[in-house]
Amino acid sequence: MGFGQTENSAMVLMPQWASDKKPGSMGLPNFFTELWIEDNNGEKLPPGQIGEVVATGPSVMKEYWHMPRETSGTIINDKLYTGDLGYLDEDGFVYVVDRAKDMYRTGGENVYPAEVEAILSYHPKIEAVAIIGVPSDKWGETGKAYIECRPGESLILEDIHSFLNGKVAKYKLPTIIKIVDALPRTVWGKIKKAEIRKWK
């Protein structure tokens, strides 16, 4: 287990001794990396509070080649703003909950789709799932689940709610479901949410 990006290689590694003691953690920052969590105001957050994962160190990239605008939003004063939301525990272990751009707010509550997607990935009828926030007159935003079913299977919204019941808070339940033949993926198999957001 570990956590890294092209912009900073493997910034977090899981020590072998801790792999069974810290379930869900990505590990500890490597020897050359300083890592912390910031809120939207740039203030460092204490253990247990979710914010953006920020890192600095000799392995952080200098810039995106010939892409100054993209660089300015990622590298600020030699600090890498990863775009990932996470938290540290009391022992300094890193937990990543979702991409910042994937989070949405419903009824004033933050929802991290990755949490719900991870649970739904165990549904026997689901091949893949992507949840995005969409506008809602009642809640501000609500979750819409795009689901690629396994061959010969089908689902309705009630099936999803029944499977999630007791596993996540009710406000995290998607209220819209759309069954699709296939979700768009990168060549590495990662679901392309940016493309899904363009769908009607």
Automatic annotation (TrEMBL):
<protein>
    <recommendedName>
        <fullName>AMP-dependent synthetase/ligase domain-containing protein</fullName>
    </recommendedName>
</protein>
<dbReference type="InterPro" id="IPR045851">
    <property type="entry name" value="AMP-bd_C_sf"/>
</dbReference>
<dbReference type="InterPro" id="IPR025110">
    <property type="entry name" value="AMP-bd_C"/>
</dbReference>
<dbReference type="InterPro" id="IPR050237">
    <property type="entry name" value="ATP-dep_AMP-bd_enzyme"/>
</dbReference>
<dbReference type="Pfam" id="PF13193">
    <property type="entry name" value="AMP-binding_C"/>
</dbReference>
<feature type="domain" description="AMP-binding enzyme C-terminal">
    <location>
        <begin position="115"/>
        <end position="190"/>
    </location>
</feature>
<feature type="domain" description="AMP-dependent synthetase/ligase">
    <location>
        <begin position="2"/>
        <end position="65"/>
    </location>
</feature>
<dbReference type="InterPro" id="IPR042099">
    <property type="entry name" value="ANL_N_sf"/>
</dbReference>
<dbReference type="GO" id="GO:0016878">
    <property type="term" value="F:acid-thiol ligase activity"/>
</dbReference>
<dbReference type="Pfam" id="PF00501">
    <property type="entry name" value="AMP-binding"/>
</dbReference>
<dbReference type="InterPro" id="IPR000873">
    <property type="entry name" value="AMP-dep_synth/lig_dom"/>
</dbReference>
